[in-house]
Design goal:
Elements lengths: L1 E4 L14 H7 L5 E2 L3 E6 L2 E7 L4 H6 L4 E2 L7 H14 L7 E9 L3 E9 L4 E3 H7 L4 H16 L2 E2 L8 E4 L3 E4 L6 E2 L5 H19 L9 H15 L2
Antiparallel strand pairs: 1-6, 2-3, 3-4, 4-7, 5-7, 6-7, 8-10, 9-12, 10-11
């Protein structure tokens, strides 16, 4: 078992934060939000616990374990360090607090990540279910996505649940599992991120009652994205 952590927020005893019994008590009986994410408080700090799960066909067979990798290449270590690097770039992402990797002999591992919770925030999906967003917010979101791309950041799953609106005015991107900082980020990958977000918006527009998204909203976002990519 290995643990990496931010020693400005937690100490060497932070391994307890990953224990199911302790986490259940800290989260008021295991309150779960955003699928596998658990919200809890520690030392006055609001935190988010995420356990890594497999997707696709493999996930139906073995949900929580992965074939062995060098520690630096495990999913939780990569995301923890990627978040650190993006914060050094000044990008609005959650602060990584701790990550744990547990080896499962002979050739597997599983793990979890804890990040600081973004205060007074909701997902883009939640915001659009409450009402339409004004033009300035769509412009700001398009500009933000371009900002990440100008820093060569690839988000593997840019969707309406991985974008947060904080305080009604500030955008954050979250959940960088399988993401990467590439040198350079290809135009194909950047455009793929944007296309993934459009598919997500269209999907939820057809699924969630009261979801307020229009073609005009998308054009505003896209125009801002292109303008900021050109600078």
């Amino acid at each position: 078992m290995s643990v990496i952590y931010d020693d400005e927020l937690v100490g060497s005893d932070c391994e307890k934060l990953f224990q199911p019994a302790w986490l259940a008590r800290a989260s008021g009986g295991g309150q779960v939000q955003r699928g596998t994410a658990v919200m809890f408080e520690y030392n006055g700090i609001q935190l988010v616990f995420k356990r890594y799960h497999r997707g696709g066909l493999a996930g139906r067979i073995v949900k929580k374990t992965y074939l062995y990798s060098p520690l630096a290449d495990t999913r939780m270590w990569r995301e923890f360090n990627m978040l650190r690097e993006m914060r050094e770039m000044g990008l609005p992402v959650t602060r990584p607090v701790a990550a744990r990797c547990v080896s499962l002999p002979p050739a597997a591992y599983r793990g979890s990540l804890i990040t600081e919770r973004v205060a007074d925030s909701q997902t883009l999906a939640e915001a659009l279910c409450q009402g339409p967003l004004d033009e300035g917010l769509w412009e700001a979101l398009g500009a933000l996505i371009a900002r990440f791309h100008r820093h060569n950041v690839y988000h593997a799953d840019l969707n309406v649940h991985n974008i947060l609106l904080a305080g009604g005015s500030d955008w954050y991107l979250i959940d960088f599992d399988k993401g990467a900082i590439r040198s350079p980020l290809s135009r194909q990958d950047a455009e793929g991120n944007v296309a993934r977000l459009r598919r997500s918006l269209d999907k939820e527009a057809g699924r969630l009652p009261g979801f307020r998204f229009s073609e005009e909203n998308w054009q505003i976002l896209l125009d801002a994205y292109r303008a900021n990519m050109a600078t």
